Amino acid sequence: MSNIDIQSNNKEGIFAGVNPVMAVGSSILVILFVLYTVIDPENANKVYSAAKKYIATDLSWYYVGLMSAFLFIAFYFVFSRYGSIRLGKNDEKPQFGFFSWFSMLFGAGIGIGILFWSIAEPMYHMQTNPFITKDQALSIEAAQIAMRISIFHWGLHGWALFAICGMSLAYFAYRKGLPLSVRSGLYPVFGDRIYGPLGHAADLLAVFGTVFGIATSLGLGAQQMNAGLEYLFGIPISTQTQIGLIVVISMIATFSVLTGVDKGIRILSELNMRLTVVMLAFFIILGPTAYVIGSFFTNLGDYMLNVTTLGLWVDPNPENTWQGAWTIFYWGWWIAWAPFCGMFIARISRGRTIREFVLGVLLAPTTLAAFWITIFGNTAVYIELFGQGGVVEAVNNDLTLALFKTIELMDIGSVLTILGASICTIMLVTYFVTSADSATLVICTLLSMGNEHPPARYRIFWGMSIGFVAAVLLLAGGLSALQTASIVAALPFSLVIITTTFGLYKALRREPLPGKPDSDIAGVAK
Description:
Layout: H1 3-7, H2 20-39, H3 41-58, H4 60-79, H5 98-109, H6 111-117, H7 120-127, H8 140-153, H9 156-175, H10 187-190, H11 197-233, H12 239-259, H13 261-286, H14 289-312, H15 322-347, H16 354-386, H17 391-397, H18 402-409, H19 414-447, H20 456-476, H21 479-508
């Protein structure tokens, strides 16, 4: 009998199929943070903000260095002898085809975020950033730098982190027989102690980041969906409407997660990708076609030339707040989402080689992200610099309307404008459902110590709980505070990622050379 059978899951009762310590501990942790934020939001916001300020001012070097190190390590694994090692048995084949695999990893990862920020972020950076002067604001030069920064924040560095986390989880679960759980990456360092408090702490941090990362995104996304419905149908923007949207999305996501990865999550992810292709074609054909296509090659080359410099840049002026508000915030958010996205990517990547896995996770999403930001963002840039303008003003007035205002300012007629806005609103819903159901599956997998098919009642409980947390915080005005708290929680979890990366390297060094008998980590149940 394996360690997972002995130490993780009860066979009967309310905790049947899950680890009772994890089930109770995660629930208490979530309830305490929600109560603290709702009962005393002013003090909670002060505490979270003070911690965030400390990270942004005193630890910016740490986040910058850490993310660049993960990118270097990811490429090292690609070109090392470890690249041919399969995340599973030597003769195992990938469970999903490339299109399904890519659709799921992109949809669960950053699809919803990039839909929200692909226009708004370049518009912000065009107005001010450390690499332009005040006189350059809203100029062609400022626009190019703005696109460079935006692609940088959604590009290789973040996906390298997801690749390292996902590879570690997949390697120890599918090749070494350990639970599909964050704690497994700690095994080469701590041995069987991962089944005690140490492992529980690592997994609870992962649950914390997943619950509040998704809940805050769901709450903020409901505001953008409400803006789309107000634009299309005149439905007033209100907290009640947004809570209703959260309830509906949570119900759909819960139903999806009950059907499993092979059905609900895969089908929704493929739908997301097809809708994304439709909207990208919509912007290319009906927008400034030659300009945006040319901009893509320019932006991609510009990003490749500057990615190393940007990745290692630490603002020498401690009084400037831009890097803390943007780059450090992004790196913290990527780290907070790493356990969720890493585990989900691992779950759908069984059977791929390390080289195939890392290159796929690094290059395909980064290329699509650059293309997406270019098509949406440069269309807005064109309207602002060479057209009638108005996008910057819309972004500054109401961030949630940036996407819909850009479609309106494309001046393509009322029918096509409504069509484009409608598809974008549907995309908001489907991308959020994909993120929510993927997060629910990851949480339940952690609670059940790596069971890829956790009990249905826990999938229902956590699927609805994520929506409940989002609704309560939206009602209490605490979403931004919890978003900040998630970023702060990324700091201790970054230490877990560093340790698991070391553990992965230590384990890979014991892998046999081709033609030699297999080796195993002592004490791991095959």
